[in-house]
Specification:
Length: 46
């Protein structure tokens, strides 16, 4: 009789975001929102 056992250990750590990364992410979020608003306004015109 053979018993094969496989174990996985997953560790989740909170990633520390640098100031520059936070600023970059905020700018990306704003641009995405502007793009989405523009798409919605074009959609409402048609």
């Amino acid at each position: 009789m053979t018993l094969n056992i496989l174990f996985f250990s997953i560790t989740i750590r909170k990633r520390k975001v640098s100031y520059e990364e936070a600023i970059q992410q905020e700018m990306v979020d704003k641009l995405y929102e502007q793009y989405r608003d523009r798409q919605m306004s074009i959609h409402h015109i048609m």
